[in-house]
Amino acid sequence: GWVWMSADGYPISMFGLFDMPALPVEKSEALADAMHDRHEALGLAMLGLVLLHILGALKHQFLDRMPFIQRMWPAS
């Protein structure tokens, strides 16, 4: 994302608290488009892995009858 925004020429504001300096990359629409595509693909891959992890935990809990969720839950 940082390379993408730097190549697009936009400043990067961190939640309005401070601005991150641009990386020393040329301002290029082709580079910005390529980084946008990679950013989107990696974000979707991360979302897929998180969902797969959650589904795996639920499978172990309910189908395999392994008490993983109880072990992870904070003690009351």
Topology (elements, then pairings):
Layout: H1 2-8, E1 12-14, E2 18-20, H2 29-62, H3 68-72
Antiparallel strand pairs: 1-2
Unreliable stretches covering 5 or more consecutive residues: none
Q: What are the secondary-structure elements, in order, as H or E? A: HEEHH
Which strands sit side by side, in order, in the main sheet? Answer: 1-2
Principal-axis shape: elongated
Mean pLDDT: 92
Query: Tally of extended strands?
Result: 2
| SS strand fraction | 5-15%
Helix content: 55-70%
Main sheet characteristics = 2 strands, antiparallel
Number of helices: 3
Category by helix and strand content? mainly alpha
N-to-C CA distance: 41 Å
Rg over CA atoms, rounded to whole Å, is 20 Å
Question: What are its keywords?
Answer:
76 residues, mainly alpha, 3 helices
What would you note in describing this structure?
- With 76 residues, the chain is mainly α.
- Helices cover 61% and strands 8% of the residues.
- It has three helices and two strands, in the order αββαα.
- It has helices spanning 2-8, 29-62, 68-72; strands spanning 12-14, 18-20.
- Strands 1-2 form a two-stranded antiparallel sheet.
- Strand 1 and strand 2 form a beta hairpin.
- Helix 1 packs antiparallel against helix 2.
- The longest helix is centred in the middle third of the chain and has 34 residues, at 29-62.
